[in-house]
Design goal:
The chain is α/β, with parallel strands linked by helices. Helices cover about 50% and strands about 10% of the residues.
Length: about 130
């Protein structure tokens, strides 16, 4: 069974020298949004001086290594909108991860405590320590 990962997990793993292999041998999927969110976080870290540009570039290479499959099944954005509405969210970004996990019938892996708490009413949610 695949595992949906969000940007919080992807960035942490990509910053590790081992890359996303640290997440185990399960198939990893994510909505296309993951790459925009992750590259934004990495750029912000570098801009604030918390990460060198080179380290950010290396993390992007690890993220683009093909370990995570971009997945956007039919109905993803509609489902994300419905989930955002149900959870009282103004934006659908986090809801895309939840929607993908729901549509694929698989767990969502996140480091985001707020997302873990809210999404657990809809899908199985795991933290990295659960792997």
């Amino acid at each position: 069974m695949p595992l949906v990962i969000d940007a919080s997990v992807a960035v942490t793993a990509a910053l590790d020298q081992a890359g996303l292999a640290t997440l185990g041998r399960r198939g990893l999927i994510a909505p296309p949004l993951l790459w925009s969110e992750a590259s934004t976080v990495l750029r912000q870290l570098a801009w604030r001086g918390e990460l060198t540009d080179d380290a950010g570039d290396q993390a992007l290479v690890r993220l683009d290594d093909g370990t995570v499959t971009p997945t956007a099944p039919r109905g993803l954005y509609r489902e994300a909108t419905l989930i955002a509405r149900r959870l009282g969210w103004a934006k659908t970004y986090d809801a895309e991860y939840v929607a993908l996990a729901s549509l694929q019938g698989c767990p969502l892996l996140t480091e985001d405590r707020r997302l873990q708490h809210r999404a657990s009413s809809i899908v199985e949610v795991l933290g990295p320590s659960d792997l």
